[in-house]
Amino acid sequence: MEPGSDDFLPPPECPVFEPSWAEFRDPLGYIAKIRPIAEKSGICKIRPPADWQPPFAVEVDNFRFTPRIQRLNELEAQTRVKLNYLDQIAKFWEIQGSSLKIPNVERRILDLYSLSKIVVEEGGYEAICKDRRWARVAQRLNYPPGKNIGSLLRSHYERIVYPYEMYQSGANLVQCNTRPFDNEEKDKEYKPHSIPLRQSVQPSKFNSYGRRAKRLQPDPEPTEEDIEKNPELKKLQIYGAGPKMMGLGLMAKDKTLRKKDKEGPECPPTVVVKEESGGDMKVESTSPKTFLESKEELSHSPEPCTKMTMRLRRNHSNAQFIESYVCRMCSRGDEDDKLLLCDGCDDNYHIFCLLPPLPEIPKGVWRCPKCVMAMVPTELVEKEFWRLVNSIEEDVTVEYGADIHSKEFGSGFPVSDSKRHLTPEEEEYATSGWNLNVMPVLEQSVLCHINADISGMKVPWLYVGMVFSAFCWHIEDHWSYSINYLHWGEPKTWYGVPSLAAEHLEEVMKKLTPELFDSQPDLLHQLVTLMNPNTLMSHGVPVVRTNQCAGEFVITFPRAYHSGFNQGYNFAEAVNFCTADWLPAGRQCIEHYRRLRRYCVFSHEELICKMAACPEKLDLNLAAAVHKEMFIMVQEERRLRKALLEKGITEAEREAFELLPDDERQCIKCKTTCFLSALACYDCPDGLVCLSHINDLCKCSSSRQYLRYRYTLDELPAMLHKLKVRAESFDTWANKVRVALEVEDGRKRSLEELRALESEARERRFPNSELLQRLKNCLSEAEACVSRALGLVSGQEAGLHRVAGLQMTLAELRAFLDQMNNLPCAMHQIGDVKGILEQVEAYQAEAREALASLPSSPGLLQSLLERGQRLGVEVPEAQQLQRQVEQARWLDEVKRTLAPSARRGTLAVMRGLLVAGASVAPSPAVDKARAELQELLTIAERWEEKAHLCLEARQKHPPATLEAIIHEAENIPVHLPNIQALKEALAKARAWIADVDEIQNGDHYPCLDDLEGLVAVGRDLPVGLEELRQLELQVLTAHSWREKASKTFLKRNSCYTLLEVLCPCADAGSDSTKRSRWMEKELGLYKSDTELLGLSAQDLRDPGSVIVAFKEGEQKEKEGILQLRRTNSAKPSPLASSTTASSATSVCVCGQVPAGVGALQCDLCQDWFHGRCVSVPRLLSSPRPSPTSSPLLAWWEWDTKFLCPLCMRSRRPRLETILALLVALQRLPVRLPEGEALQCLTERAISWQGRARQALASEDVTALLGRLAELRQRLQAEPRPEEPPTYPSAPASDPLREGSGKDMPKVQGLLENGDSVTSPEKVAPGEGSGKRDLELLSSLLPQLTGPVLELPEATRAPLEELMLEGDLLEVTLDENHSIWQLLQAGQPPDMERIRTLLELEKAERHGSRARGRALERRRRRKVDRGGEGDDPAREELEPKRVRSSGPEAEEAQEEEELEEETGGEGPPQPLPTTGSPSTQENQNGLEPVLGATSGPSAPFSTLTPRLHVPCPQQPPQQQL
C-alpha cells in the first residue's frame, strides 16, 4: 500500500540534551558522556547554553555557489522504481509508434507498476482471468469495491501492460494494437524521466582539497524542459517555511531560454502575483492552460518568469505612507528605500536587518519569518514533503546548496587566520571546541593525526537549503561521527536509524526496491535515495526524528543512517570527527568498503600506524584503543604475509606508501588504499592489490611478483610494545599511587614522593581518574596541614594568635594531630604539633588549679592568661580566666571611680561603667556594684535634669532656691555639668547684686551706660533678680527722656547727636574742619559725642568735669567764630562780577562754589551758600497790614536773617520748652551726659538773656526802640491805595524762622489748617494772592530807604557782640530778635539779599504749585476709578510729601511736630519795648524753676536732677 500524505505519521523524537556551561566546555567529553543514551537512537540534538551565540562569519555579499537540482519524486526509492518502469513501457510504445498515456481511475492516475506487480504476485494474467480475480487486484490497489473497477483494470492491463510484459518475456504479440492510445483523450501523456542516465556514477573531480568517497559530479543545471515539468511551484510558495530569496529560485540557463526572454516572457507554470483594485494581492497557480491568459500580465514583469521572484507592494509607493513605518528589528525608520514590507502582517524590515541580510529588495509576494512560521506548521510541511516524494504525477524540482567547501567560501564560524583581525568575542568562538573548524582536530580526536585537510571530514562543508531540499539516507564516510550546526534560518528535519539497525535498513530497502540495488549495489552511498520512514518502520526498522532549529547541534553516531529535508531557507555547517571508541567501527567500515569495492577517503592502517609511532602524544584512552586495533592489525598482517610466502613470493621492497597519491596505491580489486603492504608485479607496473586479493593481480608468474611493505614484521611488534607501555603506564602509575595512598607496604611516603607521582600523571597526560583525584586531594590536605603546623609553631614563637576567634581550640588541635597521623604522608611537623599539645595540656592543668583556689590575685590570673594567649591554642579554662580578670578589673575601676578622694567622674563615665559591667561575668560583687552604680546614676540624672530646668526655664528662680539645689547636689559624688553651670550662674548673680549696690550707694547717681551694662548682664543670668526690674525701669525712663530731648532739639534726619548740639562747638574757628566734620556726619562717618569737649567716657561720669569743659568750650567757640568771620569776610563775594575760584573761595554744602544771583551769606560765620541748597527765610511771613496802613515799608522787620546749617545745628527751641525738660530731668535717678550738657546750655542762655535785657533796658537803646515804634505807627497811619493788595501771612506749613524771635503777630495763612490741596476752590485764590504779594514786594523795593535809625558806635558794638553770642546759642530768645531789628534799622536795607530771597520764593512757589496740580490730578483719577486702592495713610502722607519738597518745608514740618510735642505752644510773641507784660510773665515763670537768682552767674544747684521712676513701657508723653 502506498502511503499518502494523510497517512504519514511522524516517528518518535530523538534524545535532546542541554549541557550546562561546565559540561559544554569539554565537547568530546560531553559527547562521550551522552553516547550510551544517544547511540541507541543513532542521532541526537544538543542545545547549547543560551549565552553561546557565535557570530555568523560568512561574507554574504561574496558568497556564490552552484546548487544541486533535486527532483523530489525521483529521490524516493519505490517511486523511482515506478518511474523507471513507466520509462520502460513508454520506450516500448514509442518503438511501436505510440506515446504512453496513463489512464485515470476513480479520479487518480493508475499505478501501472503496482498493477503489473500485483498481477504477477496473483499468478499472472491468464490465472487471474481464469479465476476472475480482477476484483481482488482492484482491492489490493486500494480501489473501492462494487464499481466494476476490476473489469476496468483488466481492460487497461490488456491494452497497456500486457503487450509490454509479453515483449519482455520474448513471446510473439499476436493481437498487439499498435495504436492503443488514439481513442483515449482523457489519459495523461507520459514523458520519460531518464533517471538511470542522470544518476550514473562518475568519479568526482570537484574537490581540490581531498577526496570524499568519490562523490558524483555536480548535477546538471535545470533545462527549460525540466522547469516546464514543475507544476508544484504554487505549493513551494505556500509551504515554504521561510522567506524566499532571490538566487534560490528556478532559473533555466539554456541559450534557447535566454533567446525567448529577449523575445518575450514565455513563462512555464509558475506563481503569478496579481494586483486587485482594493490593493490586496492574490497568489494564483498558473497551469499551461491558463498561461496564455496571463501572458499580458506577466509581460510587465522586469524579471524572467522562470525565477521565483518577489517585489514590494505597489500600493504602498507613497513616501508619506512608508515613512510612518519602522523596522521591527532595529526600531528605526531611516533608509526607507531599503524597508521591506511583509505581505502577511504589514510589518517592516530593513533588508540588511534580516538574517541573512538581503542584497536588494526582492520582487513578488514576501512574508516575514514570523508569518511563515505562523501560517505553516512544520508538521504540515513534513506531510507535504512526503506526499510530493511519493507522487508519480507531480514532479517538483528544488535546489540545494550542498557540500560547499568552507575552505574556499569561508566558514560560518569565526576562524583564526591572517585574513582579518578578530574581535575578543570572535576570538573566543574561534577557539571554542564546538567550532566545527576546531572539533575535528581536538586532542582527543583521531582525525587530528591526519595531516591532509580532508574536505567534509576535517574541513567543514556548508549547506544552503530551500524548502523541501533533502539529503537522502546515508551513513558518514568511514562510519565516523558527524556534527551539524544550523547557523540561521528555518528548521531542518532529521530522521535517524541506530547503527544496530543499519543492516536491517539496507535489507528492507533492497527487499522493497531490488531493481535499484541489482544495478547499483552501493546505491545507499550515493546519497540519492530516500524511503518513507513509515515504510521502514512498518518493516521493523527503528526510526527517530527531530527538528533542528537555528543555533542547535545534531550529532550522528558511527554507522547511523540519517536523512532529512529543510523546512525552508537556512544555512548549516557540518563536519566529521572520530573519537577513540570509533576505531573498531572504522576497521569494520574498511572491510565493508572492501566488499563493496568502494573507495576510501583515507587509509585506516596509515592512521593507526601514525598514532602508534608517537604513543606519548596520545591520550591515554586513545592509546589503549589504538593498542587494541594495532594488535589486531599486526596479527592480520602476519597471516596475510604468511599466505604470501606459501604462494612462493619471496621478493620484497620497502615502500613509503604515505608519500604516494591515493590513486597509485589502491587495490585494483577492492579499491582499498594500501599502507602496510601490497602485492605488485614487475611486468604489470600500473596496478597493485592488497594482500587479501593476491590472486587477482595478474596472470604473471609468481616469481615476477613482489611484496611492497611499509614496516617489517619486526618493526610492527616494537611499535605495538610502545603502545602497550603507553597504555599500561597508567596501570603501573595507578598501582604505585594505590600502594602509597593505602600504605599497603606499611611505609608512609614523603610529601616529595607524592608530588612526584602527581607530576608524572601531569607529564604523561593521564586521564583525570578517581585515583588521580584522590592523590591530588591527599597532596592538598597534606600541604594544608604542613602550612597550618608551621603557622602554629611560628605564631607561638612570635607570641601571636592573640586575636579572639583566630586561635585553634584544644579539640581542634587534637583533631588536627589525628588528621596528620591519618594522612598517608610522612611529615616531620607532627613532632612539633605534639609538643604544642603537651604544653597546652600542662597549661590547662595549672589553670584549673588557679580557678579552684579563687579568689586569687588579679596579677596571677593575668599572668596565666598571657601565657595561654602565647600558646596560640584556645583552652576552655582560659575563657574562665579571662572572665575572672575582666571582673576584677571592672570592680577595681568602679572602686577607684567612687572613692571619696578620687576626682568625680562624669555621667558618661558612669554609663560606660554600667555598659562594661553588663559584659562582665556575673557575681555577687559585680551585681552589688552594678546596683550601686545604677542608683547613683539615677539620682545624678534626676538632679542634672532639675538643674537643666532651672537653667532653661522661662520663670527664673531666686538665688535662695538655686543655692538650696546646689547644696543638695554637692553630696552626689558625680560631676554634674548642669549643677556646675548653675553654681557659676549663682556666683555671677551675687557679683551682679554687689555691683548694683555699689552703684546705687555711690556719691553720684549712676550713669546710664553703667545701668545699661548691668541690665544686659542681669538679663542673661538664669537667676530671678529683684533689682533687675528696678534698673530696667530706670533705664527705660532715661531713654524716654533722651528721646524727648532729641525730638525737641534735633532736626529730622539730623547728622548731629543730642550731646553735640547741646555742647558748644569748640572748633568753630576752623572752617575746613567744621565743614569736613559736617560732611562726615551727613554721610554717617562721624559718630563721636565727646570729642569736641575733650572728655573721655570716664570724665563724663564726673559732673564737675562736664561743667568745666563746657565753660572752656564756650570760650573756644566764641574765639573760633570770630576767627572764622574774619576769614570768611576776606573771601570775595560771589555777587561781584570779578569773582574767581581760588583756595580762599567759599564752598557751599553741595561742594560747589556759590556764584551769581541766588547766593546768600550767613549772618554768623559770614560764609556764602547757594540759596537752593539751604533753608532760607520767607519774606511773605511779614505781619499783615492794617486796612489803612502800608506796613511792608517797615523793611527792618522783614525776616531776612539767614544762618547756615553749619551754624544753626538744631531746632533751637524756646527757653520755656528747655525748662520743662530740665524739670523732667530732675526726677531721673540716672545721670546722662546730655542732661548735664542741657543744664550748662540753660545756664548759658539765662546768663545771656540777663545781659541782653540789661542792654535793651539802657536809656540809649530804650530811646531807639521808641523811635522805631513811632515810625511803625506813622507807617500804619498812612492812607492805603484805592485797590489795596491783599497781604498774605505765613502759611501754617512755613518752617521755623532760624535764629529769630518774632515780635510781630502772625496772621492766619492763606490755607487753613495746612491743607494746601483740599479743593480747587481753596487752592486757586491762595496761589493768586501769593503771586500778587511777591509782585507787590518787588514793586516796593525802590521805595525802601534807610537807615531809619542812627546807632552810635558805643551802642552798636555791645549790641553786635550780644547778637553774636545769641546766635551761637541753640536756644530761641525774644531778646535776640529785638537786637537784630535794632541793628537792621541802623543800616541801609540789603537789597541784594531781598531780591535773592524773592527769587528763591518765587521758584519755590512755582514748584509747589506744579506739584499740587499733579497731586490733584492723581487724586481725581482715584475718585474716577471708584476709590480703587484707597489708603488713608497714603492720602494723609501725600500733602506732607508735597509740602516737604524743600529745606524750608522740612523745617516747617519739624516745627509742627515740635509744637505738638510741647503741648501746642505757638511761635514766640514779639518782645515789647519796655516792661511788657509778656516779658514779666516769662521772668516770673522762671522763678519756680531757677529760684532766686541775682544775675547771670546764678548757681545750678537747683537744676540737679531728682529721682523719678515712671511705670515700665509707659509712653514718652506720660513720663514728663
Account of the protein in words:
The protein has 52 helices and 32 strands. The radius of gyration is 68 Å and the shape is elongated. The chain is of the alpha+beta class and 1520 residues long. Helices cover 47% and strands 8% of the residues. Mean pLDDT is 74; it is low at 1-5, 200-323, 801-805, 1085-1090, 1183-1190, 1281-1326, 1428-1450 and 1458-1520. The strands form 11 sheets. The protein has an 8-stranded mixed β-sheet with strand order 1-2-18-15-20-13-12-3. A 4-stranded antiparallel β-sheet has the order 14-19-16-17, covered by helices on one side. A 4-stranded mixed β-sheet has the order 21-24-22-23, with no helix packed on it. Helix 41 (1103-1129) crosses helix 43 (1233-1256). Strand 10 and strand 11 (348-350) form a beta hairpin. The longest helix has 34 residues, at 1391-1424.
What percent of residues adopt helix (DSSP H or I)?
40-55%
The spatial strand order of the largest sheet comes to 1-2-18-15-20-13-12-3
| Number of contiguous helices | 52
What is the general shape? Answer: elongated
**Total DSSP E strands:** 32
What is the distance, rounded to the nearest whole angstrom, between the alpha carbons of the first and last residues? 141 Å
Largest sheet: 8 strands, mixed
Using only C-alpha atoms, the radius of gyration works out to: 68 Å
Q: Approximately what portion of the residues adopt beta-strand conformation? A: 5-15%
List low-confidence stretches. 1-5, 200-323, 801-805, 1085-1090, 1183-1190, 1281-1326, 1428-1450, 1458-1520
Mean of all residue-level pLDDT scores: 74
**Global structural class:** alpha+beta
